[in-house]
Amino acid sequence: MRWITHWATALITLSIISFIGWSDPFVKETLRLKSFDLIQQYDTPTQSQDIAIVEIDERAIQEYGQWPWKRTVIADLIWKLRDAGAGVIILPVLFSEQDRLGGDMDLAQALAGNGVIIAQTGTSQDTFQIKNPVPRGVAKIGDPLPWLFEWNGMVGPIELLGLNADGVGVISTVPEIDGVVRRLPLLMRIGEEVYPSITMETIRVAAGDPSYQVKTQEGGITAMRVPSFSTIKTDAFGRIWLRYNKEFDTVSVTDEDFFWTLEGKTVIISTTAEGLNSIVATPKGEQYSYIPIAVSLQGILDGETLVRLPESTFLEWVSAIGLGLLLILLASRTPYWLSGIMIIAVPVGTVYGSYYYFMNHAQLWDWSWIVIVTTLVGFHAIFNRFTKEFFEKQAIKKQFAGYASPTVVRMLQENPALIKEGMKKEISICFSDLRGFTPLGESFGDDVKGLTKIMNGYMDAITQPILDADGMVIKYIGDASMHIHNAPNDDPNHAKTAVQCGLDMLRAVEKFNETLQRDDRPAVGMGAGINTGLGYLGEMGSTRRHSYDVLGDSVSTAARIESKCKEYGCVLLVGENTYDITKKDFFYLKIDELAVKGKTVGIRIYTVIDKHCDSDAQKKHELMQTCYTEKKFDKAIKLCKELTGEFGGQIDKYYEMWIERCEYMKTQDLPEDWNGVFIATTK
Predict the structure, then answer these.
(1) What predicted TM-score, i.e. pTM, was given to this entire model?
(2) Cβ(282)–Cβ(181) under 8 Å?
(3) Mind listing the pLDDT tens digit for each residue in 275-325?
(4) d(Cα 655, Cα 639) in Å, to the nearest integer?
(5) Distances (CA, A) of 622 to 83, 343, 602, 672
(6) How far is CA 479 from CA 482, 523, 525, in A?
């Protein structure tokens, strides 16, 4: 009887939670959707080979004038894309009014037979407010109308454009209860008429079919298809889940020289200029409104649309109940450590299983409810057992306190602390630092918010190449950064990757400067130092605050190499270990043999010449270095002057510095065994 009373509260807890889950209230649905979002956060993005975006960006607005453009301009754009070999063209723009400048006929001619889909949109206006809608024929198995999302009205293109366009699709999205666009209805209705989404219309136009097919059973819609295209599985309401794992090539409207890259691709024309871009909330944050169109279309083309099986909710509920009962039983009969492992293993296994089915079978399974049930019920059961045993132990302690030492007693009550093991590994470390912050900061005056925004933009710019190269950012230090390669993930070519990443970061800064120049801000630069060697990696810090970090002599060497960039007038310096590994991969010039502060032995440092690589100039540079080492300072100075302007002028400041050093060395009484090593006195 005592056992039944003891576990009654755990069983009651399980019953209450299960009832909430089965009734599926607002909170449960929100948790489910957020669990799907979390899985998508870890979905590896892939590059689309089928879809590209033509952006109407700030440059386009400057060139063609304010939006909306003359329809003759849009017509010219369509012809240019068609001449470039683009496939289906999606133009998600409403043309519900006639062009006051008379360009409708030009646009109609461009639309006719060129595989262009234009837009219409649903409206909450009264049904009688429908304006220029363009329905499509639908072949029905069963009656899908009760299951389709219904609009009160529809705003479509003017008749001239609607009749000449190869397709007209609905661009309206239907966000979830929290405003996030996770599902897209492929078909919608107004009264008895059915209207395709712009995604579905694109598939129809691409397939060259005149209509759609919809299969409906008692539980709702099960599938849709274009007759000559693969079947598309939907939920009961004719929606597909969107998998935001695609990246799309983008071309500005002004970059006509690159239109040839669009050959054979489906092209989405979208406004991205500031003030014109339409933003929607997605599981991966706010994105342009064309993204749901693009990912839904790519998913259908790939046959990788996400699905949630009709029996999913029932199976999730049964799993939650069954696992909850199992944990109650385990908590009453097994050691604490085993019960604890099971309480952790069940949620982790559930999350992993959901992730596995998501990645490998494109199925959505709700792990949140199982995790909540098993965690709460499991800990509740253990807590019940613990309280019972606690009072029993207190009674034993009171009874036997005089027969056991306090140390022994405390040993029984202690839990071992888990210490995460670190690792020792060869890595490539890169330190970078912003150049030109002072004039940039002065240009903002008291506008701290603006300066903060631009600095965040700079960090975003230099971080993206790191992420692209699978590096790990260890820390940001003011306007400086530190990142590594070959940890925690393995990269056998990490030295080469690090150098290439450094070059890509410099290019990213150049591109970032274009943004600054558009805003009449002074340009900035970057200095970077790279070194390869052993590092000690792991979770470091206090118990309250810790982070993944790396320590070691190679790390401090990399930092000091970077600190010398400004002194040598170089933007990228590498240590000799990195050079020895990658000397066949890049064009290097030796800069100096330097004993960094805190060291007595010199190391060779090099810079990478990214452009204007002249082998004759390289030989002259090597000769200059030899002359310096041999104390032939006048000849070294002469060679420096001859080398000024070589290598695209990238290291002219270095030659200026080297001339000054040679002039200084001429005044010094150097020992006979002097080897040219420069002893740094500062970091």
Answers:
(1) 0.54
(2) yes
(3) 777 888 999 889 988 899 999 999 888 887 888 888 887 787 778 777 777
(4) 9
(5) 52, 66, 18, 22
(6) 11, 15, 11
Question: What are the b/e assignments for 31-58, b being 16+ CB within 10 Å?
Answer: bbbebbbebbeebeeeebeebbbbbbbb
Torsion sign across C-alpha atoms 359, 360, 364, 370? negative
Render the burial of 498-514: b for 16+ CB within 10 Å, e for the rest.
bbbbbbbbbebbeebbe
What's the rounded Cα separation, in Å, for the pair 448 and 492? 43
pLDDT in tens, 1-55: 344 444 565 566 666 666 665 555 667 778 888 888 888 888 888 999 999 999 9
Handedness of CA 155, 159, 163, 164 (dihedral sign): negative
Encoded tokens for 284: 């991966």
Amino acid occupying residue 278: S
Beta bridge partners of 216: 221
DSSP-derived 3-state class of residue 577: helix
As a whole number of Å, the CA-based R_g of the chain is 33
Instruction: Write down how long the chain is.
Output: 683
396 CA to centre of own chain: 57
**Comparison of pLDDT for 15 and 62, the residue scoring more:** 62
Q: Are 530 and 563 in contact (CB under 8 A)?
A: no
Long-range interactions of 123-128: CB distance < 8 A, separation 24+: 123/151, 123/152, 123/153, 123/154, 123/155, 124/151, 124/152, 124/153, 125/152, 125/153, 126/152, 126/153, 127/152, 127/153, 127/190, 127/191, 128/153
- The Cα 76–Cα 101 span in angstroms is 15
Query: For residue 528, what pLDDT band results from cuts at 50, 70 and 90?
Result: very high
The rounded distance, in Å, linking the Cα atoms of 365 and 355 is 8
